[in-house]
Amino acid sequence: MILLDTDHLSILLDERDARHPPFRARLHAAGDFLAIPIVGIEEQLRGWLAKLHRVYDPQRQIVPYLRLKRVFEFLREWPIAEWNEPAADHFSHLRRLRVRIGTQDLKIACIALASDALLLSANLRDFEQVPGLRVEDWLR
Predict the structure, then answer these.
(1) Residue 121: how many other CB atoms lie within 10 Å
(2) Each residue of 19-49: pLDDT tens digit?
(3) Which helix (H) or strand (E) holds 118?
(4) What does the pLDDT average to over 47-76?
C-alpha cells in the first residue's frame, strides 16, 4: 500500500502544478494500492475552511468554494486509510519514545505503520525520526 501525505495529495488536487502530470503517471505506474490517510483529509478540509472563514466578500468566496467542492469530488474516488486502534497504539508508543514531530504528521506516520504502507511525503527529515516507517518523496 502507498499512502499520500498532505503535500503529495495537494499536488494531485492541483492540476495546474507542473509536478501533477509526472506524479500522477508515477502513481499509475507503481501498480500498488493507493490510499489517503484520514488525517490528510482533515488537513485539507481545515485549510479550505480556514481560507473561507477569512474571506468576507461573497464574490471572493466563489473560487475557494469551487476548490473545496473539487476536494470532495476527488476524494470520492479514493480509498481512505482510517485512524484505528493499531494506529493509535503506534502513536502512544512513539510519544513515549519522545519522537518529536508534529501531531498530525505523527498520526499520518502511525496510519502508515499500522497499514504497513509506504508513505509519500516531501517532509522526509521529520518522518525519518519515526522508527520502522518507510517514506519517500516522489515529487523531486
Answers:
(1) 25
(2) 999 999 999 999 899 999 999 999 999 998 9
(3) strand 118-120
(4) 92
d(CA 26, CA 31): 9
Domain range for 34: 2-39+80-136
Residue 38: which H helix or E strand, with range? helix 38-54
77-112 exposure pattern, b = at least 16 Cβ within 10 A, e = fewer: eeeebebeeebeebbeebeeeebebeebbbbbbbbb
Residue 53 resides in a domain: no
Domain contains 102: yes
CATH number of the domain where residue 30 is located = 3.40.50.1010
Q: What is the pLDDT of residues 106-124, one digit of tens each?
A: 999 999 999 999 999 999 9
Listed residue (2, 25, 6) closest to 122, CA to CA: 6
Nearest Cα residue to 8 out of 74, 52, 65, 63: 74
pTM exceeds 0.70, yes or no = yes
With respect to residue 46, please indicate whether it lies within any of the assigned structural domains. Answer: no
Q: Is the pLDDT of residue 140 over 90?
A: no
Domain membership flag for residue 26: yes
